[in-house]
Amino acid sequence: MPSAAKTIPCHIAIIMDGNGRWAKTRGLPRIKGHEAGAQAVRECVEACGELKVEYLTLYAFSAENWQRPKREVFSLMRLLEKFLKEKTPELIEKNVRLQAIGRLTDLPKRSQQQLHKTIEQTAGNNGLTLILALSYGGRLEIIDGIKSLLRAVELGHIDKAMIDVEMFSKHLYTRYYPDPDLLIRTSGEMRLSNFLLWQLSYTEMYVTPKLWPDFTKKDLFAAVEEFGSRQRRYGVVE
Ligand code: IPE
Ligand code: IPE
Ligand code: MG
What predicted TM-score, i.e. pTM, was given to this entire model? Predict the structure, then answer.
């Protein structure tokens, strides 16, 4: 655990990248990398629980990932169902509440059913909120937010003159959660890949060359430690 655990981020978001490369270096099929990645999720959830992080958002499947080979997409959806089914008792035991963001109705029916089951079964937990981003795209989320706002204007619930940053935030998938304080991306890529475009405006970024299946509790603690040394200015001069 970080020694000077002075500043623990309230919300950590992670782009879990590098499963395919992890498998490739071992001469394994990509799905084996995804399976190993699911184990890393467990460590991460545990570490966040220990640190008393309130929200952990994991980028598990992007809106663009549907364009991957059918076989990989199918395996990823099966893995999601298996992960949720197997881990639900553990989530309950660890007092974790599961939530999800993204165009969830694009997921196969079976995945949706398991997802909603786990969400329901963990709804009463008040420890870590674990948010899975599934079929998630930042630009799509903004479009959906605009449509939702327009509907509210049409219905006369709001006047368009009232629209501001705070109100728009309330029309996004993330309306119930604070913006992330810390963004972690594994596998060394220096890009957002359409993740939480609106919410990451003032988030501290931490990129590690480690591939996601190799990411351990210790790595998460190291990221949090580094976060503690950052000076957040939000554009103002002190
Ligand atoms: C991240 O690992 C998991 C998903 C996007 C579902 P990748 O599958 O992107 O692995 P690399 O980037 O090809 O190594
Ligand atoms: C981002 O990783 C999506 C997830 C981690 C789920 P990708 O591997 O899809 O992103 P790119 O293609 O490297 O930008
Ligand atoms: Mg990738």
Answer: 0.97
